[in-house]
Each structure stands twice: as C-alpha cells, then as structure tokens.
C-alpha cells in the first residue's frame, strides 16, 4: 500500500549521470582514449554501431545542464570524472591534461554557485585505453597504484570543494560484463575467473584509495569516501521453501555481497567462497576461481567506506537450479540458481528492467541487517523506455519514481539509514552496448538535431514536486502533481514538434538546395557541351 508522509529534514534529492554517457568530445582538448572509445569504434559491439563520441555534448553544455538542475530544484548532482580526460594515458608521471582539470573545476564551481552539492564518482567504467593495452586493465594488480595516483590527483585538485567521493560506480558490471560476458568494454570473455580477478583488484584499489584519503586528505578536507554498488533484489519463488530461500540469498550475496562483504565485514561471503570453491574443484582447478584475501588484506579492507552508495533498478524471483558439470567456470553457473519474473510486472523499457518497488525496501533492510546499518546514499534508481517514438508524457516513469521513492520512505520508518536519493538520470544518454535505443532521462534529447536540445518530460515536473514537498504530503496534492505534469508535457510536445519541423526544414535547406544547385550547373554544362558540339 502507498504510504503518505515526508522525508526527514535535510534529506538530499538529486540526479546523476556519467562522463562517457554524456560528455562527448571524446578526443578534444587533450583527452586520451578510453576503453569505451576503443570498444564502440569496433563494428558489431553496440546496437546500430552507435558511439558516445559526441553523446549529449555535455562537455560543451555544462551551463545549460546546470539550468536543468535548477529547474528540478535538486540538492545534489552525481557525475563522474573521466580518468583519460585529466590523465590521457592513465599514468600520472607521463602526462596531465590541464584543460581536462579546468573543465571539472569549472563544473564543480558552477554547481556550487547554484547551491548544488557535487557528488563525484572517480570511475564510471571509462578506463584509459593505454592501461588496457599495456597491462590488461583490471586483470592486472598494477591498476591499484595507477588508480590511487589518479584519485589523489582528484583529491588534490577538487577536494577543497568536493566532500562526497565515490571510488567506483557499479563495479559488478565492470567485472561481469567487461571480463566475463564481454558485452561491455574491454569486451573480454575470460570466464568466471576473469570477472573474479577484476573484482578482487577493484576491491583492493577501493581500500587503498580510502586509506589514502583517510591518511592524507581527510583532516584538511573533511569529506567522505564511499563506493556505489548496484544490485537487484532476489525474492524466493516459494518463501516456505528452504532451497528457494537459500537460492535468493545466494543471488544477493553474489551480486551485492561480492563487493559489500569484504568492505563491511572483511571477506567474501561464505556462501560465495563455498560455491565457487566447489565448482572450481569439480573442474580440476588447483585453487578456487575466487581469489583469497590475506589476513592483513582483510583487516586493511574492512571498514573502508564512510557511506554505501546503492544503485537499484529491479527485482527477480529466484529458484534453485543445478548446472551440469562445465569445463569452464562461469559467474552465472557458479551460483546454481535461475532468475524468473512475474509477467504482470510493468516493463516499459529495457528487457531486464521490471518495476517492482517492494523489492527496494527489502534490499535496504537486508543492507541494514547484514552490514550494521551503514549510512546509505541511493546513487542510481530509474527506468528506461525503448525508443519507438518520442515519449514526453512518461506516466510509467512517474509511477516508477513514486513507487520506488515511497519504498525508501517505508525503509526509513524501518530504521534504515538512508540520507539521500539520486534519480537516474538527468538526460537521455548513451546506454553502453544499447547505444541510444534506451532512454533513462528526465529530459529528452533530440540526437538528430546537431544542437542536441533538451526537452523536459512529465517526470521532470513530477520529480520537482516530490523534491519541493520532501515526500508525499497527502493523496489530493499528489494526485494534482500527476495532472499538472501531464498538462506540461503536452505543451512541450507541441514545442518539440515545431522544433523538429524547423530542424527538418534547415536540413532540407542545407542539403537539398546545394544539391539542386549543383545538379543545375552540371546539366547546364552538359547542354552547353552538346550545343558546342552541334555547332
């Protein structure tokens, strides 16, 4: 049931984005190539072979986008720094790019001038390509020191103004999609061992960066360093079945616990160690595919998060499923489970993203119980639509937003320590291997228009009302928000249609007229030649 009430005073409302998905300017002003530049430039890796080369042109539109943040009345903006934009090869001793550093300085200053808190992620998947080519990226332990150098540069240059740092955004996807399935950059298919090794190095890197901040910068800058982990919730198909309950527990432990357990409790989840160890033994491996932490490493890693960032989009039903003996280990088969969905769950966009708000409250309570009720910031939560035609009246996103934020309100009443919410995302943007075919934004972008204009969807108006009211005061008021949002989007639709027509006319003028003019000249020349030949 829906719960009417307001959030605690001081609760932070925001939106997020990431560098590669929005900035564009992939090779401008001294930026080095990232693994995503290299990956998208290979044919067949991304839907329709689209790239983030120009994306939303966010590099050139900082002021415009900050105006959108002001329209939404958000308290904070979560964005990521592109490592190769400020350090083209990823190696501090080789080269720094002052123009890149200036770009992020200007962005941070503009946000603060407009009373918007910057929350900054150091890594949202765009590893410098040089580090991938030279060392194999996150397969290589040398990444720990290279990333620590980069993080310390960021603390030095921006830490006087940035007080909320995220080391890694959704490292699960970096490891699993980058090094096991190969769906994401760098596109490697190394089996479970590859994913486990990448994650192992990321966890160690995160701990090193936290200690660097703690020892060198904290006393002066008084900021916080955390990590952002994205996880779905796993619900047992039959809550009375012990095997289903165990499978659902494994689902969450292999997803969230893989990273959260070492950071909050000092080691990988026992269930993960047992299952991966047993599967590795069946395959005749001398050691488990899941690496181990030494006693010193466990102590060093435990407690290295001042807050836990949580990304959450959807839920799955989970049942036990034993996989037959396989020659190659795989993260997915190591878990011995199958994922199911309820066909009645709304699924407006991505085929993986079903709207199941109640799963969010359960996940938040799981975190409270498992990890000692840590300080939580929700760092990503939102829903996409598949682009068939322009959809500004996105009532399904309003329903999703309303449902999921309401579950946070219920979780707060359960005693969960959530301090802020970041809706994903500000803009329609490049969605990794799905290109521009999926759209998560509160603002629609016309990517066919070279100016990349932004248009508010109905959900932007609705979210602004939630922020202004700090929750859901009463049924009548909340119902009025919906109607007002729908009225606004109808007007915006007319504006978009007019702009599209103008753009179309401009295209006709730019392309057709010169073509016709050129053809006329060519025909005149041909006729002239005929005339001269005849005479």
Automatic annotation (TrEMBL):
The yes or no answer to whether the keyword Transmembrane helix is present is yes
Concerning Pfam families, the annotation shows: Glyco_hydro_1 (PF00232)
**Top EC class per UniProt?**
hydrolase
Its UniProt entry gives the catalysed reaction(s) as:
a beta-D-glucosyl-(1<->1')-N-acylsphing-4-enine + H2O = an N-acylsphing-4-enine + D-glucose; beta-D-galactosyl-(1<->1)-sphing-4-enine + H2O = sphing-4-enine + D-galactose; beta-D-galactosyl-(1<->1')-N-octadecanoylsphing-4-enine + H2O = N-octadecanoylsphing-4-enine + D-galactose; a beta-D-xylosyl-(1<->1')-N-acylsphing-4-enine + cholesterol = cholesteryl 3-beta-D-xyloside + an N-acylsphing-4-enine
For this protein, the record's InterPro entries field holds: GH, GH_1_N_CS, Glyco_hydro_1, Glyco_hydro_1_AS
Return the EC number. 3.2.1.21, 3.2.1.45, 3.2.1.46
The Gene Ontology terms for molecular function here are: beta-glucosidase activity; galactosylceramidase activity; glucosylceramidase activity
Q: Could you tell me the keywords of this UniProt record? A: Glycosidase, Hydrolase, Membrane, Transmembrane, Transmembrane helix
Q: Which domain of life is it from?
A: Eukaryota
* Coiled-coil region list: none
Where does the chain cross the membrane? Answer: 511-532
Q: Which residues form the active site?
A: 380 (nucleophile)
Query: Which GO terms fall under biological process for this protein?
Result: carbohydrate catabolic process
Q: Which family does the UniProt entry place this protein in? A: Belongs to the glycosyl hydrolase 1 family. Klotho subfamily.
Instruction: Tell me which PANTHER family the record gives.
Output: GLYCOSYL HYDROLASE, LACTASE-LIKE PROTEIN
This protein's name: Cytosolic beta-glucosidase
- Species name: Nipponia nippon (Crested ibis)
């Amino acid at each position: 049931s829906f719960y009417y009430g307001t959030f605690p005073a001081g609760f932070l409302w925001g939106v997020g984005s990431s560098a590669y998905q929005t900035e564009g300017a992939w090779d401008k002003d001294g930026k080095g190539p990232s693994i995503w530049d290299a990956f998208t430039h290979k044919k067949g890796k991304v839907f329709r072979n689209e790239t983030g080369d120009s994306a939303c042109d966010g590099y050139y539109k900082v002021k415009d986008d900050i105006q959108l943040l002001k329209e939404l009345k958000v308290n904070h903006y979560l964005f990521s720094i592109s490592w190769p934009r400020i350090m083209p090869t990823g190696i501090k001793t080789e080269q720094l790019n002052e123009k890149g550093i200036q770009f992020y300085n200007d962005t941070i200053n503009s946000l603060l001038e407009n009373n918007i808190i910057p929350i900054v992620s150091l890594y949202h998947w765009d590893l410098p390509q040089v580090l991938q080519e030279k060392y194999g990226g996150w397969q290589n332990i040398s990444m720990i020191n290279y990333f620590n150098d980069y993080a310390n540069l960021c603390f030095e240059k921006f830490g006087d103004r940035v007080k909320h740092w995220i080391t890694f955004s959704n490292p699960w996807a970096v490891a699993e999609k980058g090094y096991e399935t190969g769906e994401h950059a760098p596109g490697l298919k190394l089996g479970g061992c590859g994913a486990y090794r990448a994650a192992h190095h990321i966890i160690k890197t995160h701990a090193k960066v936290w200690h660097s901040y703690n020892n060198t910068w904290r006393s002066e800058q008084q900021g916080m360093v955390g990590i952002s982990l994205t996880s779905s919730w796993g619900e047992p198909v039959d809550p009375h079945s012990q095997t289903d309950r165990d499978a659902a527990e494994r689902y969450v432990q292999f997803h969230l616990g893989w990273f959260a357990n070492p950071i909050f409790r000092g080691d990988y989840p026992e269930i993960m160690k047992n299952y991966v160890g047993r599967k590795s033994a069946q395959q005749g491996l001398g050691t488990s595919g899941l690496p181990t932490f030494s006693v010193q490493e466990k102590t060093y890693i435990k407690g290295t998060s001042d807050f836990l960032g949580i990304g959450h989009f959807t839920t799955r039903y989970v049942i036990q499923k034993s996989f037959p003996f396989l020659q190659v280990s795989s993260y997915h088969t190591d878990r011995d489970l199958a994922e199911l969905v309820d066909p009645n769950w709304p699924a407006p966009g991505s085929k993986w993203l079903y709207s199941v708000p109640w799963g969010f409250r359960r996940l938040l309570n799981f975190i409270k119980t498992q990890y000692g009720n840590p300080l939580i910031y929700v760092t990503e939560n939102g829903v996409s639509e598949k682009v068939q035609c322009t959809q500004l009246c996105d009532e399904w996103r309003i329903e999703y937003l309303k449902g999921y934020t309401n579950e946070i309100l219920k979780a707060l009443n359960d005693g969960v320590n959530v301090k802020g919410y970041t809706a994903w995302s500000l803009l329609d943007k490049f969605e990794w291997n799905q290109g521009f075919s999926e759209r998560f934004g509160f603002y629609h972008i016309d990517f066919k228009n070279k100016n990349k204009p932004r248009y508010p969807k109905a959900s932007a108006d609705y979210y602004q009302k939630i922020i202004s009211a700090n929750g859901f005061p009463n049924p009548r008021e909340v119902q009025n928000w919906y109607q007002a949002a729908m009225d606004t989007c109808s007007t915006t639709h007319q504006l978009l249609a007019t702009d599209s027509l103008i753009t179309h006319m401009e295209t006709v003028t730019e392309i057709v007229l010169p073509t016709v003019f050129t053809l006329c000249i060519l025909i005149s020349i041909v006729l002239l030649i005929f005339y001269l030949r005849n005479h």
